[in-house]
Every structure is written in structure tokens, then in C-alpha cells.
């Protein structure tokens, strides 16, 4: 083998060995910089040789160097990311108590309340990502996501586990043959949660959630300021009752959502068409007929200031749906909606600093809907929430949360529920430890908390099967606990 070729694997080995030896002494950035320096030295030595290597050998060398550079840049390889939380929620008698962002009667309708000091579960969503970059520049992503949620505090929870493979898909981008409006586009297929869903973290609610099994294309650019996504998602409606009430059978169908999601500057315009053939055959209460089609739309603005008043950010969205689209958050996921169902929702939140050591994140979530599950039903609810934090040291802050929700719910006899109106309130104080304070999005956090919750007595009679009004859960009570939360 020529001398100049021997130096290439030798230099590469030296570079990798150097990174390994000093892994505990230098930062990742320094290690990558050293690897790049060694690679440049190898290239320079190759260029200095007076005799050029054969073309095949040169190509092999360049391929190996390119592969090293891709690994060094983080553009390929296996990685893991996700979200997790776990903690105890105890009442004044030191027993587990009810809780969760959807604990109120408006919860099944999407009426979330503040989550700080109000979560009794252990939840994890772990994503495993395998990225590759080909020599022609194309990128591939394979993702598997696994999620589980339990409310028990036991160490072994197999009997209560809801373990679920939540995503399995392949995505391709930077394809050399894609040109024009498709030059920066990415195509995908499989089971996934849509990339461009977004949420109000302090309420643990998505503003809009699109998921299922299907295929789509992201980031078609029709102008410098306009990009579009198109997708088809399928979900299954199964084991619902069909036929006669005295002799029912079971039915199933697929809910298909055709989605168009468009971004023009800071604006987002989303339109969805939903179809579920044979869904109108399912038996509903009071002989109502379920919808087999629906439409859904959203207009949103993603601001890069705090409502134009200070540094920070905000998002606001207005959503409306009819028929199967009247489930405005979880698009295409509810088969019990009527043909005449309609719903309109407003979602708003923002974050900013009030002073160098105080930050605030207010949010509003409200919805009105009618003819949803029974003719003449009428649901109205609104949540106002504010999360505040006082950064006291580099590793400690005091967090506070105030939540208020008003409900006026008339189910028109659906599932034996009663018409009620009233309000729910929660106040939480949470001493919080973290490796580095500075912003609402920094994690991990370890919190102690105390919460006081109260609500109108009338709400206890809404549904005999919900938490309100059950033994030891009638309002005017304290809860305490500890929780860890992280993104990784």
C-alpha cells in the first residue's frame, strides 16, 4: 500500500483515539473540533503527494472521510429523545388522591386545567431515532416511539401498564431528484404524530393534535414566505354497536383525515377533511345518527415577542369543526359525534420575563359546542391559567400556578349526565430544583408542591362515574407531593 494511503487510516485512528482518551476532560464541541483538525490534516497530506492515487482508491478515501465528517457533525447515527414525569400526589390524609389536568367535568370535552401540583401519574414517551446521510446528500430518519402511563406508585406495574408503540415511521429529505417547490421537501410514511402539532405545556393540552397511520410530505415551498404540508392519516373506529338495540352487533370502520397545513410568515392555516364510511350505522343514545364526514379548520399565529409588549413569545389559535371535525383538538379521533355537531375553540399562551428574576406564562383555553353527542346538547367552558417563577439562585426557584375554569354544561341527557354550571379553582406553590435556572423550557426539574383546589358543589352531580363528588373528593381540599419532570 502506498505511504500516503497508510497515513489516512492512521490519522483517523489517532483522531478517534484522541477523542476517546480525552472524553472526560473536554467538551463535545472541543472533541469535534479536534476531529475536524485531524481530518483537515489528512486531506492536506493527501494533496501534498506528488503521485495521484488511482481513481477508485481516491473515491474510497473520500467516502471514508465523508462518513467520518457526517458522524462528527451529528447528521447520522442512533439517538434517543423524549419526555417523562413521575411523582406522588397525596391528600391531607397522606393517601393517593384524584387529579390530572382533565379532572373536571369539562375534562372529557378537552377542558384542561393547570397541571402543576395536579398530576398523579408516571408517564414516559421515549423516541429512538436512526439518522443516515447518503453520499448523494439524501437524509433518512427512522423513528420508533414507545410510551407508557400508570397512576400506581408501585415499582412493578405490568397489570396497569398502557405500554404503546406510539410511532413507527420513515422520513426522507434532501432528495437530489427533488427540485423546484419540492427541493426542501421531506416525505414520510408509517405511524406517527404529526411534526407540526403544538401545545400549551402548562395545561398539558395540545392546541391541535394530528396522528395516525398514513403518509405525507412536509415543507413544499411555493414562495420564499410560504410552505405547505399535505398528509393522509388513518385511524380505526372498532367494536361499536350496530343494528337493533335489542339485538346489537359490532361494527368497525376507518377514519381518514386529509390534511393541508400552510405557513405564511408567522401565520398558520390548516384545513382538514374527515371521512369514516359506515360510521353512521353505529347505535347512539336517543337514536341519534353518528356523522360519517366532517370538516375542520384552524388559523394560528406564532409570535416571536410577548404580544408585542416585551421579549418572549406567544401563540394564538382559533379552531372550528363540524361533524367528525367537531373534536377540534384530536382531529378524526372521535366517532360518537353527530352530523350537526359543531365546536369552536380559542387557545392562547405566551411567556416573558417581568423582571430579571421573575417570569410569567399566562394561557387561555375556551370552547363552545352544540349538538355534539345528543340533539340539543350545549357545552361551554373556559380556563384561565398563569404559571409564575421566581429565580432565586442558579439552581433553585419558586414556582406558582393559578387556575380557574368556568363550566356551563348541558348534555341533554347523554349517558345520564345532568345539566350543571359552576367553577373550579386551583392554587399551587412549588419549590423547584434544577441544574440551571433561566426560562420555562429548561429541564430537568425536581419539585415539591402544595395545592389547594375547590369547586362549585353543583358540579359534583354532573356524572356519577367521574371523580367529582366521589368519597373524599368534594372540593375545598389540600394536596401535597413531589414530582420530577424532564425532556431528554
UniProtKB/TrEMBL annotation:
Residues 1-23 form the signal peptide. It comes from the Bacteria. GO terms for biological process: monoatomic ion transport; polysaccharide transport. Keywords: Cell outer membrane, Ion transport, Membrane, Porin, Signal, Transmembrane, Transmembrane beta strand, Transport. This is Carbohydrate porin. One of its GO terms (molecular function) is porin activity. Residues 44-63 are annotated as: Disordered. Pfam families: LamB (PF02264). Belongs to the porin LamB (TC 1.B.3) family. It is found in: Cell outer membrane. Gene3D superfamilies: Porin, LamB type.
Amino acid at each position: 500500500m502506498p505511504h500516503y494511503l497508510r497515513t489516512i487510516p492512521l490519522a483517523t485512528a489517532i483522531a478517534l483515539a484522541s477523542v476517546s482518551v480525552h472524553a472526560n476532560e473536554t467538551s463535545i464541541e472541543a472533541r469535534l473540533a479536534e476531529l475536524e483538525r485531524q481530518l483537515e490534516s489528512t486531506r492536506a497530506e493527501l494533496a501534498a503527494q506528488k503521485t495521484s492515487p488511482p481513481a477508485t482508491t481516491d473515491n474510497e478515501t473520500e467516502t471514508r472521510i465523508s462518513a467520518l465528517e457526517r458522524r462528527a457533525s451529528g447528521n447520522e447515527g442512533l439517538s434517543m429523545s423524549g419526555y417523562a414525569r413521575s411523582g406522588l400526589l397525596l391528600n391531607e390524609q397522606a393517601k393517593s388522591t384524584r387529579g390530572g389536568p382533565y379532572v373536571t367535568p369539562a375534562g372529557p370535552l378537552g377542558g384542561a386545567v393547570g397541571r402543576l401540583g395536579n398530576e398523579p401519574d408516571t408517564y414516559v414517551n421515549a423516541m429512538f431515532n436512526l439518522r443516515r446521510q447518503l453520499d448523494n446528500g439524501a437524509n433518512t430518519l427512522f423513528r420508533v416511539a414507545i410510551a407508557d402511563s400508570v397512576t400506581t406508585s408501585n415499582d412493578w406495574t405490568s397489570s396497569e401498564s398502557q405500554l404503546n408503540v406510539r410511532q413507527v415511521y420513515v422520513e426522507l429529505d434532501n432528495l437530489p431528484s427533488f427540485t423546484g417547490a419540492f427541493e426542501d421537501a421531506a416525505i414520510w410514511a408509517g405511524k406517527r404524530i404529526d411534526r407540526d402539532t403544538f401545545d400549551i405545556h402548562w395545561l398539558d393540552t395540545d392546541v391541535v393534535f394530528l396522528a395516525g397511520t398514513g403518509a405525507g410530505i412536509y415543507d413544499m415551498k411555493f414562495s420564499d414566505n410560504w410552505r405547505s404540508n399535505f398528509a393522509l392519516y388513518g385511524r380505526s373506529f372498532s367494536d361499536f354497536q350496530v343494528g337493533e338495540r335489542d339485538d346489537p352487533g359490532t361494527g368497525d370502520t376507518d377514519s381518514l383525515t386529509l390534511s393541508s397545513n400552510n405557513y405564511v410568515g408567522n401565520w398558520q392555516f390548516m384545513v382538514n377533511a374527515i371521512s369514516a364510511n359506515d360510521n353512521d350505522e353505529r347505535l347512539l343514545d336517543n337514536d341519534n345518527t353518528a356523522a360519517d364526514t366532517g370538516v375542520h379548520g384552524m388559523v394560528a399565529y406564532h409570535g416571536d415577542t410577548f404580544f408585542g409588549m416585551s421579549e418572549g413569545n406567544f401563540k394564538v389559535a382559533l379552531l372550528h369543526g363540524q361533524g367528525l371535525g367537531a373534536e377540534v383538538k384530536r382531529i378524526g379521533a372521535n366517532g360518537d359525534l353527530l352530523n350537526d355537531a359543531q365546536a369552536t375553540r380559542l387557545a392562547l399562551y405566551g411567556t416573558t420575563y417581568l423582571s430579571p428574576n421573575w417570569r410569567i406564562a399566562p394561557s387561555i383555553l375556551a370552547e363552545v359546542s352544540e349538538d355534539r353527542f345528543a340533539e340539543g346538547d350545549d357545552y361551554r367552558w373556559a380556563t384561565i391559567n398563569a404559571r409564575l417563577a421566581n429565580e432565586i439562585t442558579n439552581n433553585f426557584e419558586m414556582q406558582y400556578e393559578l387556575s380557574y375554569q368556568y363550566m356551563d354544561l348541558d348534555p341533554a341527557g347523554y349517558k345520564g349526565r345532568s345539566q350543571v354550571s359552576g367553577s373550579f379553582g386551583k392554587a399551587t406553590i412549588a419549590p423547584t430544583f434544577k441544574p440551571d435556572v433561566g426560562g420555562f423550557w429548561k429541564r430537568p426539574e425536581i419539585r415539591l408542591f402544595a395545592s389547594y383546589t375547590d369547586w362549585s358543589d353543583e358540579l359534583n352531580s354532573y356524572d356519577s362515574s367521574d371523580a367529582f363528588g366521589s368519597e373524599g373528593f368534594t372540593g375545598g381540599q389540600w394536596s401535597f407531593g413531589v414530582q420530577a419532570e424532564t425532556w431528554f
